[in-house]
Amino acid sequence: MHEPLAQLLERTYSVAEREVIYRLIRGCWQIRHFAADPIPRESLQRILDAALDAPFAGDRPPWNIIVITSAALRAHIMAAVEQGHESDASTRPDERGQGVSGALTRERLTEAPLHLAVTYDRGRGGPVGLDRALGPFRDISRICWAIQNLWLAACAEGLGVEWIRLSDDGAVARLLALPRRVQLIAYLCLGIPQAFHVRPKREAVDWRARRRLDSRIYTDL
């Protein structure tokens, strides 16, 4: 006889614990500005451990996380990102928001006390049944789980994460001296937000207000 769902849930996570999980999910919104305060070492370790707790196939996860500690490397990466955005603006001058987006990216990169790079090692783990037969898609989906774990853990620690848009990820990969088999998946800024927003930032400023849920969820009827 199966245990009733309500009893199983209560035994696994209390109502209060489940609410915390949903609060974390709702609270991980876009960060506009970071405070300059350093990130406590213990908090950073718990965040990185959460990323490593994501599921993977084989004997080792296909991802690495690079913590950028060199001020010189960070400056070179910021210059490469800015150059890529300037190139985008020159080749697509009619696209609205390019200048604003580039300025916000520059501010986040400058303000955030810590940068992280998440990479995918295509040679990691060896052949593992169906997962490898499906190609890199399955590995990359698992890397996204790791990033989501990292994001939620950061929010639980009172920190914020921003995924930086890279116009030329190859330039950043070269600065990180990544081997050819290793692909840069994400470049993240991590830090203490200057303010958490109860509502999504876009909705709070009436910028492209959130669509109704029923306009994005479908059934087979």
Would you write up a description of this structure?
This protein is an alpha+beta fold and 221 residues long. The protein has one domain: 3-Layer(aba) Sandwich (NADH Oxidase), CATH 3.40.109.10. It contains 9 helices and 4 strands. It has helices at residues 5-12, 15-27, 41-52, 71-91, 98-111, 129-133, 136-156, 169-175, 201-204, and strands at residues 63-68, 114-121, 160-163, 182-191. Strands 1-2-4-3 form a 4-stranded antiparallel sheet, with helices on both faces. α3 (41-52) packs antiparallel against α7 (136-156) and α4 packs antiparallel against α5 (98-111). The chain is globular, with a radius of gyration of 20 Å. The two termini are 33 Å apart. The model has no long low-confidence stretch (mean pLDDT 80).
Q: Which radius of gyration do the C-alpha atoms yield?
A: 20 Å
Q: Judging by the overall fold, what is the CATH architecture?
A: 3-Layer(aba) Sandwich
Pairing-aware structural class of the strands and helices? alpha+beta
SSE succession: HHHEHHEHHEHEH
Give the neighbour order of strands across the main sheet.
1-2-4-3
Count of helical stretches:
9
Top CATH class: Alpha Beta
CATH H-level superfamily: NADH Oxidase
End-to-end Cα distance, whole Å, is 33 Å
Mean pLDDT score, rounded? 80
Helix content: 40-55%
Briefly note the CATH topology name.
NADH Oxidase
Describe the main β-sheet briefly.
Answer: 4 strands, antiparallel
Low-confidence stretches: none
Shape: globular
